[in-house]
C-alpha cells in the first residue's frame, strides 16, 4: 500500500471535489499485502482523526449529508486495519504506538469495533502461525520464530489494558453481538502472562459469585450469563488450579431454572473438558456425579448442549472409565434419538458415534479387536429391544440404524449384523406402529449396508411380514414398504423374491 499511495495519493473532499480519490479505500481493502503497522499508524491514523473531527464540525453546521459521508470514510479507514494486521512485519516495534488508539476506538466508537477486533485477532493468529523449520530428524513440533515470540510478548504486555476493556464492553453489548469479542478475548488470553490471567479470571469469577447470590431477577440472570461467557473465553488458557475454581463455580448452574444459564453452564463444562484432559481424568467421578444429578433437571432446550458436553467428556476418558459410564450414558443417549428437536437428535447420534470411536481407540490397532469393541456397544444398545415401552424399542432401533450405517464397511461386523436383522424382523409383527416405523428404517439401512449373501437367507422372514403392512389400513406405512420392495428388486433377482 505504501508504494501504491506514493504513486496515487489518497485525497478526501467534502463537496464533490474533482480531486477526491476516497474511492481508493474500497480498492485497498482487498489488496493489502506485505504491509507494516508503522505505515498504518503514520498514514491512516491521522486521517481517521481528521475525518472524525471534520464530520463533527459539519454536523454542527447542519451539513448532515456531508458529515455522514465522512463518517462512512472514517469506518472505511478502520476497515483497512485487518489487512495490515494479517501480514504485518513490524508488530514488535509498531504495536506500542497504536495500542492506545485501538483501545480508545474500541471503547468510544462501536461502529468500528468489529474491524479492530478482527485486526487484533488476525495479528495474534498470524504471529502464532509463524513456526521455525526443524532440522532433519528433529521433533515435528514446531516452535515459534524468535521474531514472532517477541511480538507476541509485546502484545501480551498490553493484555492488562485490553482484557479489562473487553470485559466492560462485553457486559454492555447485547448477547447477539458478543461472539467476535469472545473470540478476541480467547486469543488475547492465550498470550497473556499466567499471573495476570489468573488475577483477571478471579475478578470475573468473584463477580459471577456475587451475581449468583442475588435473587434471580431477569437482569441478574443476564449478568450471570455474560460473566459465564467471559469465563468460557478464558478457560482454554487457565492453569489447573483456576480450572478447578471454574468447575466449582459452574457446577451449580447445571441445574439452573434458567434455560439460558443452564446452556452456558453446559458449554463451560464442555470447553473445560476439551482443553483440560488432565482435569477430566482426575475429577471424573465428580463430573459423573454432577452429570447424573443434572440429568433430570435438564430442560428440553438444553439437551443439545448437554450431549455436546457429554461428547467432550467421553473423548477424554480412559478405557476402564469408559466401561463404567457406558450403561447410564447409552440409555440417555438412545432415548434422545426420539427427541422432537432435530439438533438434539443429531447431537445424540453424534454422541453414539463418538462412543463407538472411543471404544475403537481403546481397543488398539487390530481390526478384529476394534470390531469386537464396537460390537459390544451394538449389543448394549440392542438390549433396548427387549424394553417394555414401544418408545424405548423404537429409539433403540433408530440408534442401531445409525451405528450400522456408520460401520457398514467393517467386514467383521457382517455376521453380527445379519443376526441382528433376524432378531429385528420379529418386531414387524409388533402392535405399535411406532416400532414398525423404526423397523422399516433399520431395514432400509441393512439393505444398503449388508452384502447380498447375508440378506438372501432372510428373505422368507422379511417379505411376508412387510407385505402385511401394505393394506389400506396402514396407508402411512404402505409407501415406505413399497419403496423397500423396490430396493429389494434392485438387489435381488426375481427368483429370490418369489421363492
How would you characterize this protein structure?
With 499 residues, the chain is mostly helical. Among the domains are: 1-131 and 145-192, no CATH class; 198-297. Helices cover 73% and strands 0% of the residues. It is built from 27 helices and no strands. It has helices spanning 2-7, 24-29, 37-60, 64-79, 81-86, 91-108, 113-128, 146-156, 159-172, 179-190, 194-213, 218-234, 240-250, 259-275, 277-282, 284-294, 303-316, 319-336, 342-363, 367-382, 390-406, 414-425, 433-449, 452-455, 459-467, 475-491, 494-498. Helix 11 runs antiparallel to helix 12. The longest helix is centred in the first third of the chain and has 24 residues, at 37-60. The protein is elongated, with a radius of gyration of 30 Å. The model is unreliable at 134-141 (pLDDT under 50). It comes from Calcidiscus leptoporus. This is RRP12 HEAT domain-containing protein. Belongs to the RRP12 family. InterPro entries: ARM-like (IPR011989), ARM-type_fold (IPR016024), HEAT_RRP12 (IPR012978), RRP12 (IPR052087). Residues 1-171 form the RRP12 HEAT domain.
Which tags fit this structure?
mainly alpha, about 500 residues
Layout of helices and strands:
Elements: H1 2-7, H2 24-29, H3 37-60, H4 64-79, H5 81-86, H6 91-108, H7 113-128, H8 146-156, H9 159-172, H10 179-190, H11 194-213, H12 218-234, H13 240-250, H14 259-275, H15 277-282, H16 284-294, H17 303-316, H18 319-336, H19 342-363, H20 367-382, H21 390-406, H22 414-425, H23 433-449, H24 452-455, H25 459-467, H26 475-491, H27 494-498
